[in-house]
Amino acid sequence: MEIIGLTGGIGSGKSTVAKIFEQHGVPCFNCDDEARHIQDDDPRAVEGMKMLFGDDIYDEHGHLQRRRVGEVAFRDSSLLAKINELVHPLVYESFMKFKAANEQHKFVLIESAILIQSGFYKLTDGCIFVKAGLEARIARVMRRDGLTREQVLLRIKNQMPEEEMLRYCKYVVFNNGYVPQIESQILHAVQTGDFSDLIY
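^ that's the sequence the OP posted. Answer follows.
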């Protein structure tokens, strides 16, 4: 089994690319989605988040108030680091279970916005970087998350620069919004095991 990493800046369209892989039979582990589940459901994470933010950081349904967390954490790098120290080991634990459950597959995908920063890229046999224009990224996140342009730019500022992320990625997918072209490249890679069309 080969582990393929998938990363990119916020709003680059990583989820679109991951879905194409899934549609062609490649299991995908989404670290960001798993982190959300863990923060809501894992008692270890819930206790840790309450210690960092107070009991009222969870609403009456037991869901983490992520917008409140984001407003504080994206302005305080030390607090963001503490959240990552709490959540990343639990995400790693979940991924190892996912990997064991999918050993029969030729490829599995691990997707994360912070694949490099978390160190999860070290688990992979190669990483794909999803690249898109800045304005397209801003528009996608504003539409998806209901954020202002300024809030999106703050999140982009807090991410690792693209140039640095690319140093860790062997492959690149340009997400210009034209899905058939992306799908053609990915289908070829999955069927042949040859990812050379994605070499940047």
